[in-house]
Design a protein that fits this description.
The structure holds 2 protein chains of 2 kinds. By secondary structure, chain A is mainly alpha-helical. Chain A has helices at about 1-35, 45-65, 75-80, 80-115, 125-150; strands at about 120, 125. The chains are: A mainly alpha, B mainly alpha. At the A-B interface, helix 1, helix 2, helix 3, helix 4 and helix 5 of A face helix 1, helix 2, helix 3, helix 4 and helix 12 of B.
C-alpha cells in the first residue's frame, strides 16, 4: 500500500520538478530576451525562478532519497556481515526520516510566520517559499519509512519513473 | 564543546553511511540543540543558502551536461578523437584522453564524462586487446578535467562558498592552463604505459577524415564557447550563460544532430532534477554548517594550529593539500568545496595564495579524491563499466596518479601557472 502511494508520489513529484526546471530555463531566457531585445527587463522573472528552484531542488532531493541518489560513504557497510548491514541501513533510513520530520516541523514554523507577507514582484504569499520544505520533508519521511519496511521484508524499492 | 559535538556527530553519521547532506544536517541539529537554540534556525539558514540567483547556474549546467550525455554528442567526439590520435601507439588510450578532455570541457562533470566516454571507449578498448585496468584508469583520470572546465558547476559552488568575492570569469580563465597541462600529462602517462605493455597502434584515416569528423563535433563543442564568451564579455551573467547553454544543447541534440529521442530527453531532465536536488540540498545544509564553522572560529583555530607546525608557506600549502586530499577521498566534490572553503581559504590567502589559485588547487584535489576509495565516484562508474574491481584498478593506477599529482603541485607552487591568463585579461 505504502509502496503504491509512494511510487505515485515520487513519479508525479519528479514530473512537477521537471516541468519546474523547464519553466526556470524559460524564465531566465525570457529575462535575457527582455533585456536585450525588448529593452525591458521583466522583474517577475527572477523572483519566479527563485521560488520555482526551491520546488525543483527539494522535490528532486526527496525523490533522490527514494531512488537512493544521495551520496554517502559505503565502505563500512561493505565491511560488515549481511545481517549487520541491514540493521545499519535501517538506522540510516531512520536518521534520514528524522531529518525529514524536522524539515516538516521547521518548514511549518517558518511558513506560518510569513504567510501574511507578500513577495513584492509576484504578489503571492511569502509562504510559497517555505511550502516546499514542508512537502519535501513529508516525502523524505514517507520514502525513508518505505525503505525501512522494504528492508525488514527483504525487498528492494524500485524507482517509480525513469 | 559545541564544536566537538559538531565534528564528532558529523564523522559518526558519515562513517555509518548516512548520506553526506543528511549527515551535515543532523550534526547541525545536534549542535544547535546542545546550544539551546531553536532548531528552526537550521532550516532558515538552509533555505536562504539555497535561494540565491547565482545558484541557478548549477541546475542549468547539470541539465546541459545531461542533455549532452543523452543526446549523442559523445559519439561525434569519440570519432574525431580516434581519427586524430588513434594511429599513435596505444592509440585508443590516447583517443580516450582526447575524447574525455573534450567532453569534460562541455559537460563540466567528471562523472557524466566517465559514463558517456567510458561506455563507448572502455568496451572498445577491451575488444582491441587493451587490459581492462588500463582502459578504466585512462578514462577515469582523463575525465577529471571536467571539474576544471568553464561548464563545471563546481566553480560556481566555489565562487559562492568564497562569499561571492571570487570572480567566476577569473576562475574559468585560471582553469584553462591546468586543464591543458592535465590533458598533456595524461597523454604522456597513457603513451608510456601503452609502450611498456606493447599495445597496438591504429591506422591513420587521412586528414580529410580528421577534418570531416572535426566539423561534425564542432557544434557540440561550441557550448563551451558560448559560456566562456558570454561570461567574459559581460553580456550574460553566469546563470544567464548557463540557460543559453541549455537551449543550445537542446538545439544541437534535437534539431541539428537529431540524435535525441523523446525518452532520452525526459531521462536527461529527470536525472538533472535529481542531481540538482542532491547538490542544492547539500548547498543548503552546508550553509548551516558554514554558519556554525564561523560561529566557533574554526578557520582561526585551524590557522593557529597550522602556524604552530610551520610558518613556511610551502609547508602550509602542502598541509592544506594533504587535508583537502584526505577529505576529498570520502566526500564528494560539492561537500568538500562547501565545507573546506570557509576554513582553508583565509589561511591560504594569509600565506600569499590568490583566492582564484586556491579555487583551482581545491578543485584539483577534489578531482583526485574522485578517483580514490572509499568514495571515488568516477572510479566506481569506470569500474562498473569495465567490469573490474576497484582493487584491481588501484594496482596499476600509479602512472596516472603521478601525472595528476604533478599537475596539482604545479598549480600549488607556481602561481603564474593558473594566474597568468586571468591577469592577462585584467582580472586581478
Amino acid at each position: 500500500m505504502l509502496t503504491r502511494v509512494n511510487a505515485f508520489l515520487a513519479k508525479y513529484c519528479l514530473i512537477i520538478a521537471v516541468i519546474g526546471l523547464y519553466a526556470i530555463v524559460a524564465a531566465v531566457v525570457f529575462q535575457v530576451f527582455g533585456r536585450y531585445v525588448m529593452n525591458d527587463t521583466p522583474t517577475w522573472a527572477e523572483a519566479l525562478t527563485l521560488v520555482l528552484i526551491l520546488y525543483v531542488a527539494l522535490f528532486g532531493a526527496a525523490v533522490g532519497v527514494r531512488d537512493a541518489g544521495h551520496i554517502g560513504m559505503e565502505s563500512l557497510l561493505v565491511l560488515v556481515s549481511d545481517e549487520w548491514r541491514r540493521r545499519l541501513e535501517v538506522v540510516i533510513h531512520l536518521l534520514v526520516a528524522i531529518f525529514g520530520a524536522l524539515m516538516v516541523a521547521g518548514g511549518w514554523g517558518l511558513m506560518s510566520g510569513v504567510l501574511s507577507y507578500k513577495i513584492p514582484t509576484l504578489g503571492i504569499s511569502e509562504g510559497w517559499h517555505y511550502a516546499p520544505l514542508v512537502l519535501s520533508g513529508a516525502l523524505i519521511f514517507l520514502f525513508s519509512v518505505e525503505h525501512i519496511i522494504a528492508n525488514v521484508q527483504h525487498k528492494e524499492v524500485v524507482p517509480a519513473w525513469l | 564543546m559545541a564544536l566537538t559535538i559538531l565534528c564528532v556527530t558529523f564523522l559518526f553519521f558519515l562513517i555509518i553511511g548516512v548520506p553526506v547532506a543528511f549527515a551535515i544536517g543532523l550534526s547541525a541539529v545536534c549542535t544547535i540543540l546542545y546550544e539551546g537554540l531553536p532548531f528552526i534556525v537550521i532550516f532558515q539558514r538552509m533555505m536562504s543558502s539555497m535561494n540565491v540567483f547565482s545558484f541557478l547556474a548549477i541546475p542549468f549546467f547539470i541539465f546541459a551536461g545531461e542533455l549532452m550525455l543523452y543526446g549523442g554528442i559523445a559519439d561525434k567526439i569519440v570519432v574525431f578523437a580516434k581519427n586524430l590520435v588513434g594511429h599513435v601507439r596505444g592509440g585508443l588510450g590516447m583517443s580516450n584522453v582526447v575524447a574525455c578532455t573534450l567532453f569534460g570541457g562541455i559537460s563540466g562533470s567528471p562523472v557524466a564524462d566517465v559514463s558517456a566516454m567510458g561506455s563507448v571507449m572502455i568496451p572498445m578498448m577491451k575488444k582491441e586487446g587493451y587490459d581492462a585496468d588500463y582502459a578504466v584508469n585512462v578514462t577515469t583520470h582523463a575525465s577529471l578535467v571536467g571539474a576544471l572546465t568553464p561548464t563545471s558547476h563546481n566553480m560556481i559552488i566555489y565562487s559562492l562558498a568564497a562569499g561571492g568575492k571570487v570572480s567566476i570569469g577569473a576562475l574559468i580563465l585560471a582553469g584553462v592552463m591546468p586543464t591543458i597541462v592535465l590533458a598533456v600529462c595524461m597523454l604522456v602517462a597513457a603513451y608510456l604505459v601503452a609502450v611498456h605493455r606493447g599495445y597496438p597502434a591504429g591506422v591513420f584515416p587521412g586528414w580529410h577524415e580528421v577534418w570531416r569528423s572535426a566539423a561534425a563535433a564542432v557544434p557540440g563543442l561550441f557550448v563551451a564557447v558560448i559560456i566562456i564568451a558570454g561570461i567574459l564579455s559581460g553580456v550574460f551573467t553566469a546563470t544567464e550563460s548557463a540557460s543559453i547553454a541549455v537551449i543550445y544543447a537542446m538545439f544541437v541534440t534535437v534539431v541539428l544532430y537529431r540524435t535525441m529521442s523523446r525518452k532520452n530527453f525526459l531521462k536527461a531532465s529527470a536525472k538533472a532534477v535529481k542531481t540538482t536536488g542532491v547538490v542544492l540540498l547539500l548547498i543548503g545544509v552546508s550553509g548551516t554548517f558554514q554558519y556554525l564553522i564561523g560561529l566557533y572560529s574554526v578557520a582561526d583555530l585551524t590557522g593557529a594550529w597550522m602556524a604552530k607546525v610551520s610558518s613556511e608557506p610551502w609547508v602550509i600549502f602542502m598541509m592544506i593539500n594533504v587535508i583537502l586530499f584526505i577529505l576529498g577521498t570520502f566526500m564528494d566534490m560539492a561537500s568538500t568545496i562547501l565545507i573546506c572553503t570557509p576554513i582553508f581559504l583565509p589561511i591560504a590567502v594569509q600565506y600569499g595564495m590568490d583566492p582564484v589559485q586556491f579555487g583551482i588547487v581545491l578543485l584539483v584535489n577534489c578531482a583526485l579524491g574522485l578517483n580514490t576509495p572509499p568514495v571515488g565516484t568516477t572510479q566506481f562508474v569506470g569500474c562498473a563499466i569495465g567490469g573490474v574491481s576497484v582493487g584491481y584498478v588501484m594496482r596499476t593506477i600509479w602512472p596516472f596518479y603521478g601525472a595528476l599529482t604533478a599537475a596539482l603541485l604545479a598549480v600549488t607552487y607556481i602561481p603564474a601557472f593558473s594566474m597568468w591568463l586571468p591577469r592577462f585579461f585584467g582580472y586581478t
